[in-house]
Amino acid sequence: MKEIETFLEDKKVRPTAMRVLIYKYMAEKEIAVALADIENAFTKADRTTLYRTLKTFEENGIVHQIDDGTGITKYALCDKGCNCEIEQDLHLHFHCLNCNETVCLTKHKIPHINLPEGYLAEDVNLVVKGICEKCSGQ
C-alpha cells in the first residue's frame, strides 16, 4: 500500500484510503472497469466519492477513459510514463464480444493521423472488437 501512496503523491494526488483502495482494485483487475464495477466492489462507499476519485485520477494522468462502444464509459490505469496525449501516447483497445471485457493493448500504438488544415483533434479512440485470447482458448 505504501508504494501506491507514494505513486499517488508523485502524481500530486492526496492518497486517501479510498483512493488507495480504488487504485489497488483497478491494478488487480488488469481490465478496464466501469463506475458500476467499482460501486459493486465498494458497496459502502458513496457513488459521488467513487466518481470524483476516477475524475481526479483522470485529471492527473493515472487513468484514461475508454469508449468501447457499449455505451458505458470504462476506465483503465495508465502505464508508467503514459501521458495520454493524442500526439504521443495512443494505443489500441480490444473489446471481447464474448466476455464483454475491454483491455488496453498498450504495446500496439495507433499511428499519428494527419487531419486536414483547420481540424483539431480532441480525442482519438480505436477499439477492435472480437474474441479475446482467453475466450478463444488460444
TrEMBL record:
SUPFAM superfamilies: Winged helix' DNA-binding domain (SSF46785). Its cofactor is Zn(2+). It comes from the Bacteria. InterPro entries: FUR, WH-like_DNA-bd_sf, WH_DNA-bd_sf. Zn(2+) binds at C96, C99, C132, C135. Keywords: Metal-binding, Zinc. PANTHER family: HYDROGEN PEROXIDE SENSITIVE REPRESSOR (PTHR33202:SF22), ZINC UPTAKE REGULATION PROTEIN (PTHR33202). This is Transcriptional regulator. It comes from Arenibacter certesii.
